[in-house]
Amino acid sequence: MNAVKPLRLAIVGLGTVGLGVIRLLRENHALIARRAGRPIEVVAISARDRSRDRGIDLTPYEWVDDMGSLAMRDDIDAIVELIGGADGPALTLARQALAQRKPFVTANKAMIAHHGLALAREAEAVDVALKYEAAVAGGVPVIKGVREGLAANRIERVYGILNGTCNFILSTMENEGRDFDDVLKDAQAKGFAEADPSFDIDGIDAGHKLSILASLCFGTEIDFGSVDITGIRHVIAADIREAEALGYCIRLIGLAECDEEGQNIGLFQRVHPTLIPLDHPLAHVDGALNAVVAEGNFVGRLFFQGAGAGAGPTASAVVADIIDVARDEYGPAFAMPAEWLQRQVKADAGQRVGRSYLRLRVKDRPGVLAEITAAMRDAGVSIESLIQRGPDGVEGVLIAIVTHATEQARIDDSFLRLAGSDSLIDTPMVMHILD
Amino acid sequence: MNAVKPLRLAIVGLGTVGLGVIRLLRENHALIARRAGRPIEVVAISARDRSRDRGIDLTPYEWVDDMGSLAMRDDIDAIVELIGGADGPALTLARQALAQRKPFVTANKAMIAHHGLALAREAEAVDVALKYEAAVAGGVPVIKGVREGLAANRIERVYGILNGTCNFILSTMENEGRDFDDVLKDAQAKGFAEADPSFDIDGIDAGHKLSILASLCFGTEIDFGSVDITGIRHVIAADIREAEALGYCIRLIGLAECDEEGQNIGLFQRVHPTLIPLDHPLAHVDGALNAVVAEGNFVGRLFFQGAGAGAGPTASAVVADIIDVARDEYGPAFAMPAEWLQRQVKADAGQRVGRSYLRLRVKDRPGVLAEITAAMRDAGVSIESLIQRGPDGVEGVLIAIVTHATEQARIDDSFLRLAGSDSLIDTPMVMHILD
Questions:
Q1: CA–CA min distance B188, chain A (Å)
Q2: Cα-based distances in Å from B164 to A295, A381, B379
Q3: Which structural domains are found in chain A, ordered by start?
Q4: Hey, are the CB atoms on B316 and A260 less than 8 Å from each other?
Q5: Residue A256 and residue A156: Cα distance in Å, rounded?
Q6: pLDDT tens digits, one per residue of A166-216
Q7: Residue in B149, B297, B330 nearest the CB of A141
């Protein structure tokens, strides 16, 4: 092994993940050298604030203030970007690295979701690696699983729990019967949610990850802009109780489907709170775990689960990518050359047929149920089950409905027919049922 | 894509899996070409019996009787072996292929478990791919997951449900309250178990797979010979009932641990019916599914699940390997050069500390419980819980014991003290509890 050239890295960004990568490369150094076929060495580091005490000895590494200079150096073989953010310094660094033919490893889902296609083209033009395993599902090697493990399959559907913060909040609401705001505050106090949590709880982060998975699974150009996103802000404790009574739990699910056979469905991508049957493997994914299900036409349903965030798991994925670079085992970023990726139209969500859960909070007065069921009848929505419960910690009366399989557009229509009705206390909520 | 050279295959062995591979390459041909970067073509096929009607048109492929000649041909780039069997024609073919510098893809767990190390050396000597994703957990890309996805981690433990036949039998016993022999006959009638089922139900097949996983996870030489194997023949319906009452289900688990830090534990590999806590992800793995858990020092616990057998899933794994060969993305068969794999001594199972479930069937007469508990006291085994049930479809009286954490050797000792006692109706059964 001594005769072999080490892979020399620059690590840019020294937050939780950056420090995790340094710790991991240090602690598992000998083992990684055996697996990578050569030693992996950190040569230089860079971050915004040099003075901050990061609780780890960084003196073995050269500190570089001008991160742009790293791409120009002959003593650096690859650049690891752990700054975050879709644009700004991360994107500048990516472009500089690829322009200088440096392999580029990142955990940056926002950047890949927005600029992954352009970066993939730049990486292919100079034949270097662009790797982003840590961008989706943290430590779970699902990028590799889909890109390589399922490469033989037409993938019919991919879906999963892609945001640990949301899953922590929903499963805590479920286990403790508490309401959203209350659990969110608690999660923030414990560091499981950011001070500004909207990126997570409004589903943007899950949307980024879903758009990346969809591209890999379907051979389509990444299209984050066409992901329909609804977060978990409006899920209430009563929803979780009703879902449970019906045999479901509620999870924030990112789901994508694509028609490759010319049925003209297009690319469907949706992040939405979803009812999961209790006997589905995703129903057992609790706390901050992530899980992904991919359904292939030969392999059937594959299920991957593990820690979706945190320094250790994310570092594990980043270093797996680095080892692939050291082994020289890499290929096009999105499994096939970027020019072969297909641009797909956005599927019409209104055409999708499925069962849904509807929840309405209404005033406790005569005729309300007749008004609601009439609107549904007129919209052509057929009701499978309906529960009306009297006031019980919920303002007004709660009506929970499970529909028969129907086009999504009909449900939207039924809500439109009710819009403005003063029987409603707030906007009705729809959640889809995973079948 | 037209300008690129196709990867030309010979497929040897045309049973369920071989035909599955042909069907898959045909049905997903265009998609696979995009993902592999070039078309994949079957040039020649070979099997023992040419005359058999296999229900699929094989006339597009050249039939070759002398499979050894395939390795010599310039118009064949890689050989896919789907014959099976540890030795014999499969092994001969592997050696011929590698000697002629042909990449070799196989689904043959028995051959890899017995000869994988030697074959890896031969493949490395000529720098060609030796791939065997389908050998473990069928369609689940766990070889890739462990070899590459977890490459950054010291893997502390790997375990899982590695045999679909056993899992089908155990989960059917559980769901239907039936006994082993009865369910086995049923499984044989339905084609879920072989006419001679011993390879599966006695745990040999799971042992092969475990030894392969252990080598990849720990960087040790494959050592199938040191796997302790107990199958599921002696699990009775009453065990499953008692386990359930205690909060567990019973699965045939292959589990391996290795000490890399010089604590001198050695390599521990065991296939054994095991009690799984009902809140563990493995407890939800039913029917013929396979699942693997790998625990890394940075990533934590990763969980992979999917179809462990069958034409489609196995073909999916075989073709994933073929695509890696087409992409030229491969490396040493066991993640690192064979010469770097460490030879590990077999760990002393008697030293392992853990809780166990013991089941004894005894005669219904005074003093028996005193005799048993005295033997356990004398052996130093401490009892956490004990249930004695009167005759209920079981001959004699059934005693189910859960021990406190104790060395396995003490339990063996307690059984030795009871050996020959005419209070026992049959040999006591021990199952370990996964903690």
A1: 23
A2: 19, 42, 37
A3: 7-135 (3.40.50.720), 142-308+330-349 (3.30.360.10), 350-433 (3.30.70.260)
A4: no
A5: 9
A6: 999 999 999 999 999 999 999 899 888 888 899 999 999 999 999 999 999
A7: B149
